[in-house]
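Feature request, filed as a ticket because there's no other form

It would be nice if the structure record came with a short human-readable summary line next to the tokens. Right now we just get the raw output. Example of a typical job, pasted below so the devs can see what we mean:
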Amino acid sequence: MSETQVAAVAPATVGVGLVPLEASLRAARDGGRKLLVPYVTGGLGSHWVEVLQAMVANGADAVEIGIPFSDPVMDGPTIQEASLRALQLGATPPGILSELRRVRVEVPLIAMTYYNLVFRGGHRRFAHNLIEAGVAGIILPDVPLEELGDWSRAADEAGVETVLLAAPITPDDRMAELCRRSRGFVYGVNLMGVTGERSAVASSARRLAERLKAATDKPVLMGFGVSTPEQAAEAASYADGVIVASALMRLLLDGATPERVGDRVADLRAALDAT
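Raw output as currently delivered:
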């Protein structure tokens, strides 16, 4: 299915309250705004939806929602801990999506999970469940480009925008194909390794962002190791925006209220606005 065909399919299939991902991010970027996408682990405590809403209220351009999985191969210690705690509290994909069906926010929602959950749920059913819950996009980090076929067809038909990741070692020809097939935005992985807080933005981030910006007009967001407002501003200075996860989940794991997490998002927003 071509990108033109996808665009024709998506509007007819979107769920109530769903905000399309790429169109929203493009509009914000083209208006001169640096993009901020914070992350929250679905089911992490009884107030996780309030955390999501606080993120939106304090300047998020989209929110990434982790659907916990027991073997999160891309995630570092903080997100692993958040996922384990959510699973221990009884979080399930249907339960998280059920809660999201009652949420109305004016920014796109993006699911982040692993392929086993999608496979077990069935490609088409999982894709339609996302749309019905108002989730516009998904990140599946353990599905390589060569194995996207079945999921990509189901997602495109339902209107789910599948975000693909590019790493510092991704060769140019593969990067071009990743950018072509990615929906919503392209996720630039700042460094080789797992997610987690870092003391500085990896030196490889700038070069990767420059390569991605040269390869695509889709929004380019950088993630992995973006922890502080200063780091967010640095990474966004050579990309379209940033994804921040572990630093925010550490706050929640340490007992922060939704309001406190919202304050940290506001700090990130202020730093990006000053870029």
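Something like this underneath would help us a lot:
The two ends are 38 Å apart (CA to CA).
Residues 1-15, 192-200 have pLDDT under 50 and may be disordered.
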